[in-house]
Amino acid sequence: MARGFQKTMMTALGATDHVMTVLSVTDLTPGFRRIRFSAPTMIDGRETPTASYVRLWAPDPKEPGKVHQRGYTLVEPDAATGQVSFDFVLHEPMGPASAWAAAAKPGDTITASYYMFHKFEPPEDPEGYLLMGDPAAIPAINAILGVLPPEARVVIILQAHAPGDAAIPVTTHPGADVLWTGPGTGALAGAVPHRDWSNWYAWVAAEGAAIKELRATLNRVHGFPLSDIKHAAYWMRGKAMRLRKEAGPSAGETVTRDQPTTQPPFVPIAAANAAAPAAPRPRWRSQRGVELLGSLRWKLRAAGALQGLISLMQLAPLVLMAELGRRLLAGEGRWEVLSPLILWAIALYGAAATLSAGLMLWLHAVDAQFGHTLRVSIVTKLARLPLGWFTDRNAATVHQAVQEDAGRLHYMVTHAVPDVVAGIVTPLAVILYLFAVDAALAAMLFLPLIAFVALYILMMRGVADKLVEFANWTKRANAAASAFVEALPVVRVFGGDGRALRAVLDGQAAFLNGWQRPMAGRKVASQLAIQPPTFLLLITAAGCWRVLSGGMAPADLLPFLFLGTVFGAQIMTVMYGFVPLREAKQAARRIGLLLEEPELDRSRSSRELPPGPLGLRFDGVSFGYRPGKPVLRDVDLVLKPGTMTALVGPSGAGKSTLAGLPGRFHDVTDGAIRIVSGETEIDIRQLKPEALQRAVGFVFQDVRLIKETLRENIALARPGATMAEIEAAARAARIHERILAAPRGYDSVVGEDARLSGGEAQRLSIARALLADPPMLVLDEATAFADPESEHLVQQALSALVGRRTVLVVAHRLHTVTHADCIAVMQAGRIVQSGRHQELLARPGLYRDLWQAGERKSA
Ligand code: ADP
């Protein structure tokens, strides 16, 4: 694309030119050339996210002085040396960039604009990745393949433009299938296999027109929501890569490779598609957000239509008043002529106000109902999610959904649509009316807007680079501040000053000053340009000129004075109005994703606990947090009633994961966990939730206390417990004395007047478990606490708790479980050894290695 308007806009929006010097030229295949550049101003330590690309300005081979731009993916950017490579496809006929690359030699220079780096940001855990593009996209696809987890499923569809393209090296990935198709605008779109693409993520980079068609096909034929397709047009046919329209095999036709490669052979995709059975209607998790808003759609449309009418009705009295003025000036000052105008104005004004109030009331009612339904669904959902879902990150998701996203939806339902509609209808109606009154003067109302845009563009110049610089300063200032705070005790005792911090802060202030000060003037000027007084001044001056030069009747100035002055402010409302609408859509998407989280299946959970002492059996248990990534594999383990079983093994072996399964923190992927009492065995998924809760107690390292009294914290599982029972549990857990020492004893509130140390909180949670008195117990063995006194008390409390229960303990230090009835040694999700301490120690194996390593460490 010629460097003209687009270049100006890009520069205005912050693109900066970087001159790059060729260092070396390597042909990866005869038609695919990698050029390494020195680009110290571009690769200067800032982040270069995966698959980011820049615009390269290639000289026009025919017209000197003219340049063309194309997107190129950064290959192997190296911040330390300021070097980066770009891969060029050398085709016939060559476009400007290819022609430049074909002749490039070390020492040559070329400019690149880096507008903003584009991140590769797929949604969380998609079912798979569909990566599509042409040879120009291969560097980006390679970059993406480099960061995808090995278990990811990937389908890559590439379009060959010329024989030999299929030899271009594509990064190998264990889960990737690579298909090649032939040239032509529709070839990529036609190559997408018919299958169930539910929850897949599509990434597309190719020629502009091909992308347009591909997006439409992915959406209409294969069901992809447009939000799950990331696309970037790297070039446009006939504009950038090639100057002439290409001649080649027709769309959908496959090309033959001209040399052997490691690529899989071409697949006759069109034929395969024809033979494939119709795929089931696919579903995307992200669609839930759209469905969520679906119930509102007709209501919001109706509200928009009504608001359009209201806006016109609100405007009409002003038009009538202007008409009134014109007639008065024209000497038609008779009551019979004027009264209908006045009455109509009053009536319309009243009707518009009433309708507007009615609309607001109705929308608030709609919102109240929608908000209620939404919150109830979220709360219901939370109750049905497995406990293991509530990690810190997911807790933040819930927080955002309930607190912020629900609020954004409130704005969208009640205000956003009327605001945007009013913002569009009013200025449009005003300008149409004013054009009808006097086109020349009406046209002049655009002058302040043009000035505003020009000043804005000036203001945004170089912003991208400045923002990066700003982020660097912030990072530096934060680092200096934390270094200063860390050193503070030493500084206080031995003297010293915060010179380093002051220098950084001064530097940051100087940078901000240098950046913002020249902008301040433009900022004020751009704001001034669209203020009502500016329009008033313009209308008066230009209007007088029009009247004096005989182009317009004096009375015609009135409508402009009535309506033209707030024109600029109204246009701004539209520009700002779309932001909350977009945010609300994203909020709906996030809430939708939360509502799509898989729930715990409770459909069979109807049985009570069997009587008698309880044991537990893991039968061929497998589990993974993500499909295709097992964390536990085929685990068999028996916990006999009244015995203690210890899980040991290296970190990450799956001990904590296994220990959480008896409480249904997650459900097993395969196999079963059964509660055993004599001859009776019950799958824990068949137990009523309360029964399972009564059967298994948990004491974790990371203790969660609720913001209630200490008494309520202990009696959490048995709210009806008497004070005597609570106290007995606290004594046994060695926390009674500590509670009495708190300002209000058992009535002290956690986080207010009761602040417990780690060890104390641990003992409180043991008291909680003692009071609940479950027949089975899962313990995550406490790690060493800083103070030995506390550790001693925790150990005593634990001994009291274990008693004669059936215990599963996750042990981090082997010497604490040497007395266990059974020690199960885990490695990579499997139990690799089990037995008593002495037996295990006598045999060579992981346990003995771990034991010996522990001995060496403590020696
Ligand atoms: P251990 O207790 O033996 O240290 P874990 O059971 O904590 O091992 O972890 C086993 C594996 O499961 C690790 O690879 C860990 O990264 C992964 N893992 C643990 N918790 C989660 C989770 N909530 N989501 C995803 N992966 C997890």
Top CATH class of the largest domain:
Alpha Beta
The outline comes out as globular
If helices are DSSP runs of H or I spanning 4 or more residues, what is the number of helices?
26
Radius of gyration, CA atoms, in whole angstroms:
36 Å
- Low-pLDDT stretches: 240-276
Strand order of the largest sheet: 4-3-7-1-2-6-5
Helix content: 40-55%
Named CATH topology of the largest domain:
Rossmann fold
- Quote the beta fraction: 15-25%
The major sheet is characterized as:
7 strands, antiparallel
CATH superfamily of the largest domain: P-loop containing nucleotide triphosphate hydrolases
Description of the structure:
Its cofactor is FAD. Residues 15-123 form the FAD-binding FR-type domain. Its main location: membrane. Residues 616-853 form the ABC transporter domain. GO terms for molecular function: ABC-type transporter activity; ATP binding; ATP hydrolysis activity; ATPase-coupled lipid transmembrane transporter activity; oxidoreductase activity. The protein is an alpha/beta fold. The chain has four domains: 4-114, Translation factors (Elongation Factor Tu (Ef-tu), domain 3, Beta Barrel), CATH 2.40.30; 128-275, 3-Layer(aba) Sandwich (Rossmann fold); 297-438 and 571-600, no CATH class; 615-858, P-loop containing nucleotide triphosphate hydrolases (Rossmann fold). The protein has a seven-stranded antiparallel beta sheet with strand order 4-3-7-1-2-6-5. Strands 18-19-20-15-21-22 form a six-stranded mixed beta sheet. The longest helix is centred in the middle third of the chain and has 50 residues, at 335-384. 33% of the residues are buried. Residues 391, 625, 631, 649, 651-657 line the site of adenosine-5'-diphosphate.
